[in-house]
Design brief:
By secondary structure, this protein is mostly helical. The chain has one domain. Helix content is 88%, strand content 0%.
Length: 64
């Protein structure tokens, strides 16, 4: 699928999957893992915002 929304959403889900190990490590007291987890969550936030914008843009293109 060559859709920009799909690609960005895939990055978002991959980022969440990749940081699961850091979540477990953080819950067991590893503070460095917490730092990596917060950084990953910031990336998730940015990807989510891109998805929102891209969906809106595609919706507006169809409506025109």
């Amino acid at each position: 699928m060559d859709n920009k929304v799909f690609q960005t959403f895939s990055y978002l889900t991959q980022t969440v999957e990749d940081c699961q190990e850091d979540l477990t490590r953080f819950l067991h007291g590893n503070k460095s893992a917490g730092t990596r987890l917060r950084k990953a969550m910031q990336a998730v936030k940015q990807y989510a915002q891109r998805v929102r914008v891209e969906v809106q843009e595609q919706k507006n293109e169809v409506s025109v």
